[in-house]
Amino acid sequence: MTSSSDRSQAVDVQEPKTYEVRTYGCQMNVHDSERLSGLLEGAGYVRAPDGSDGDADVVVFNTCAVRENADNRLYGNLGRLAPMKTKRPGMQIAVGGCLAQKDRDTIVKKAPWVDVVFGTHNIGKLPVLLERARVQEEAQVEIAESLEAFPSTLPTRRESAYAAWVSISVGCNNTCTFCIVPALRGKEKDRRTGDILAEIEALVGEGVSEITLLGQNVNAYGSDIGDREAFSKLLRACGQIEGLERVRFTSPHPRDFTDDVIAAMAETPNVMPQLHMPLQSGSDPVLKAMRRSYRQDRYLGIIEKVRAAIPHAAITTDIIVGFPGETEEDFEQTMHVAREARFSAAFTFQYSKRPGTPAATMENQVPKEVVQARYERLVALQEQISWDENKKQVGRTLELMVAEGEGRKDGATHRLSGRAPDNRLVHFTKPDQEVRPGDVVTVEVTYAAPHHLLAEGAVLDVRRTRAGDAWEKRNAAEAPKPAGVMLGLPKIGAPEPLPVATGSGCGCD
Known about the structure:
Blueprint: H1 4-10, E1 18-23, H2 27-42, E2 46-47, E3 58-63, H3 70-87, E4 92-97, H4 98-102, H5 107-110, E5 116-118, H6 126-136, E6 140-142, E7 163-167, E8 169-170, H7 181-185, E9 189-190, H8 193-205, E10 210-214, H9 230-238, E11 246-250, H10 259-267, E12 274-276, H11 284-290, H12 296-309, E13 314-321, H13 328-341, E14 345-350, H14 368-391, E15 397-402, H15 410-413, E16 415-419, E17 425-429, E18 440-444, E19 447-448, E20 453-455, E21 461-463, H16 466-477
Parallel strand pairs: 1-2, 1-3, 3-4, 4-5, 5-6, 7-10, 10-11, 12-13, 13-14, 17-20
Antiparallel strand pairs: 8-9, 15-16, 15-18, 16-17, 18-21, 19-20
Helix pairs in contact: 9-10, 13-14
């Protein structure tokens, strides 16, 4: 006779299913992928080991519809997974995000091996759709036309233990002619201030010391509730949260950038002296054709006010080169604004058509060779400006929040990397004592390059933080450490400046 204990030992213990999330696009997609990871882990999945490259039970593509050839990139990646799925019974593939919202009817037709297609408004349905596809043995396509639940109410698997995105709104009320995102993300919907602050306080309680407020047009916050000063009030409220050391936000729109926001930035100590404000073009006629509701004078006036209130602020921007109808004179106006604004970095893109946008059908499309030549001129100018502005940092003493994975050469150079309050990337000499991501060090800047600073002397001070404790606790619990979400653009902190790209910007501004 077999005992119950013998029978229990004979039962096969199934390994938990693994998942991988591949993310492309803007900060919204990055944050959505944290939600997707949290949902999957809540459903019992575990992240695939580092370097699995599609060798997971579930592979999720969180797509972007803004980048050039986004659909070709997606179908190419799906094609590479098709033979892997054939060899691996039970493997599932899901496609979500903006491209899924736009191409809902074509994804399964072009890639019939895809199991789930979901949109930007119903990411919370992913585990249910995967299970339904498994049981019914057919693809599940479910695209919600409006937001079902604010994303921040969903489980989250944060990519950083010490810094976090906090979404304050979704959607966009603008009608920029180069951008398809409003059609895919919907009208702006603001989150309750109390819910935002409660999430931030909970994050700080877990050890997070830096948060980035996130919205398609983050400083339009309040339009949904009829309070034009809601965003500045939110910044000031963040200043009252004990233990929150750094507050950033992205991306604001010049149309909504009011004096009360500048005052809140200047008067709230934990709001960092950093501003990313998209320009797109310096030409008034081009801005009008783009349906950007400001002009050159208004934009430069904001920059002047910010610099007067926050002298050490680092200001970055987005610029599109070669928008339809752009003349040489128009382009020279963009060069003029770059010289006047003295951006510390610019994310510069060559215009390319986006199906479904008004700009795609405009006359006077600028020849590719002209766009390329102008792009190179602007990049060369901005490279010099970035370098000159960074040289002004030499000799300054800065407090850096130690970052993880920011310095690709840190191992070879025996350095660590961190972000200054203005978000500049600084590589510094590794001190004798242990320093963890999330800790704070004080250094003196000794050298400037266009896209980073060096602090080659000894570290002046090391402050161990609760954020560093949180990083250490998370890494001790993760053995081996899971793979990170594969991100197309940003991580916490600014992406590398001046990417060689042919897009129209992320559309989140």
